[in-house]
Amino acid sequence: MIAQGVEAGGHQGTHRDVPDTDCSGVGLLSLVAQVREAVGIPVVAAGGIMRGGQIAAVLTAGADAAQLGTAFLAAHESGAHSLHKRALTDPLYARTELTRAFSGRPARALVNRFLREHGPYAPAAYPDVHHLTAPLRKAAAKAGDAQGMALWAGQGHRMARELPAGQLVELLAAELEAAR
Ligand SMILES: Cc1cc2nc3c(=O)[nH]c(=O)nc-3n(C[C@H](O)[C@H](O)[C@H](O)COP(=O)(O)O)c2cc1C
């Protein structure tokens, strides 16, 4: 079972779509402990994990494994747009928000112009909003305008490391070992 904290980048794996999802979301450490006590199957922790020390933390909290998304967005092998990769560590993008602006379902992205302008009124209408905004996002990417793209990112985005994926895994394993 994947326990996805509200810190996670991209779409939230939820069937609930309530306004102000940021406030009702549960943080990863709290969630892992609760899921661990509720189920007898392996639990995978996801959301905001960028370092081996955080993997040690979720394993200690009861998870059997950790899942990292944003940490691998900046990897050499990642297919993310170069502007998206750069934005992860750009001080211009200071924070993330859960928004329906791009797809009509809550997803966490770096706060940019598109999110600021369309997030407040975007309806719960997935996948219609996704199809509606896809040509705009595509055009923005083509024009090199990161302010018009969906910059999916978890709350730990600042800690992204631009490395080959294999090296990143080795580094995370070494950090985990050191933390334990
Ligand atoms: C670029 C990107 C796209 C994602 N797309 C989805 C998605 O379509 N559906 C989903 O359930 N989770 C999606 N996720 C969430 C991941 O499955 C995972 O929960 C998340 O990446 C973990 O948090 P982290 O990004 O902070 O490591 C996406 C994550 C990223 C970074």
Automatic annotation (TrEMBL):
The keyword Oxidoreductase applies. Its cofactor is FMN. InterPro entries: Aldolase_TIM (IPR013785), NMO (IPR004136). Keywords: Detoxification, Flavoprotein, FMN, Monooxygenase, Oxidoreductase. The keyword Oxidoreductase applies. SUPFAM superfamilies: Inosine monophosphate dehydrogenase (IMPDH). GO terms for molecular function: nitronate monooxygenase activity. It catalyses: 3 propionate 3-nitronate + 3 O2 + H2O = 3 3-oxopropanoate + 2 nitrate + nitrite + H2O2 + 3 H(+). GO terms for biological process: response to toxic substance. Belongs to the nitronate monooxygenase family. NMO class I subfamily. This is Propionate 3-nitronate monooxygenase.
